Amino acid sequence: MPFPLSMARPSTSLLACCLLLAAVPSTSRGEFVYATSFSTGELIRFHSSDPVNTRTEILAPGTLDSPTGLAFGADGHLYVGVNGLLASDAPSIVRVNLSDNSFTTAYTFATFDVFPAAVVFRGDDLLVGRNPFVGNAGPIVALANIINGPVSQNDYTSGGGLASSPGLALAADGTLYVSDQTYDFITFVASGPVKRFDPTGAYVEDVIADGGSGLAGPTGLAILGDTLFTASIMNGQILATDLTTDSTMLFADTTFSFAVGPLALLGNGQLLSGDPSGFYSSIFHFDTDGSIIGTYALGLGQVGGITVAPVPEPSTLALVGMGVVGGAALLRRRHRRMIQR
User: How many other C-beta atoms are found inside a 10 Å radius of the C-beta of residue 30?
Assistant: First the structure.
C-alpha cells in the first residue's frame, strides 16, 4: 500500500500521516492507535492525546517484512498484512497477540498472487485488498474462518474489473467500498475510481469516478455512519461522500501530493491519515471539520496501515484505570457489601 520511495515525486513539502488507532476508555481522553511501518517492519502503539511521548514499540524494526494494513479480529488479536518483499518471503497475514506482543502466521498466500494492502473483517472472515505499488491487480480476497480455522481463500468480489485495492471500508449493511487504484510505474501517477459492492461481493457501481470531485488516486478509505472518507494520494486531499446521495466534496487538504494514504477514525469522529511515501514519516490528525489539529513525526518512514482497537467494556476500563491493586480492592469492597446484605 505504501508509495515506492524510488518513484515518489513530492511537491514542496509533504507531511503525510498514516497510522493505526486503537480505542481506549473515553474519546475525551484520547484513544490508543496502532500503526505499521512498511519501511522498517515494525508495529507501534501510541495514544492519540500524546502520540510522540506515548509511542511504544510492539514489534521491533525488522520483525515484519513490509507490513501494510491491519484490523482487529473478534478474538481481540490484531491481524496484519505482510508483503514479504525484502526477503522474498511469501505474502501472508500474521496474528499479533497484544497480551504478550507475540505473533504467529495466520495464513500464507501460496502463489504470490496476493500482496495485501488494506484488510477489514467481515464477521470471522478477513477481506484483503491488493497493493497497487507492486502492481498487484485482481478481486478482493476473502480468507474465511481466519480466526478459528481452517482457513480457505476465495475471491470475494465479482465484476467491477478491479485493478488494485489499497482502501477498503465495510458499511453496517454489508456494502463494501473499494479504492480501485491503478498506479503507472512510468509516469508515477495513481488514478482510478471508488467502487461499491453489495453484501454478496457483486459490483454495483462507481461511487466516485476517476477524476470526479477532485479524486486523484484513491488510497485509504474510512466510513462513519453515512459518510465515506477517501484519501486522494496525488493531491494530498481527503474527500467526504454522503452515501445517501453519493454527493462528494472536499473534506481536508494537506496541499502536499503523496501526503495521505491509510485512514483511521477515532471514536469522536476525528480522522488520522498517514504518509505512504515515507518522505516526512508523519501522521496528520484532522478535526471533524477537516482542519488539521496536529502532525506527528513518529519515525515510521512509509506508513503501511493504521487501525483503532475496540473499546473495552466500562467495568473493565474502571479496573484498568485503577490498576491491579486498586481493582482488587474495589472487588473486595463489593464482595463485602454483598455478604452484609
Answer: 22
CB atoms within 10 A of CB 87: 9
Q: How far apart are CA 165 and CA 201, in angstroms?
A: 14
Predicted TM-score (pTM) of the model is: 0.85
Kindly write down the DSSP assignment for every residue of 233-282, as one continuous string. TTTTEEEEEETTTTEEEEEEE---TT-B--EEE-TTS-EEEE-SS-SS-E
> What count of residues does the chain have?
341
Residue 242: CB partners within 8 Å, gap ≥ 6?
Answer: 226, 227, 248
Q: What is the pLDDT of residues 42-51, one digit of tens each?
A: 999 999 999 9
User: What is the three-state SS of 109-174?
Assistant: CCCCCCCEEEEEEECCEEEEEECHHHCCCCCCEEEECCCCCCCEEEECCECCCCCCCCEEEECCCC
Contact yes or no for 267/310 (Cβ under 8 A): no
Three cell numbers written together for 304? 503501511
Confidence (pLDDT) at 332 = 36
Whole-angstrom distance, CA of residue 187 vs CA of residue 263: 25
Q: What are phi and psi for residue 316, nearest 5 degrees?
A: -65, -40
CB distance 149 to 160 below 8 Å = no
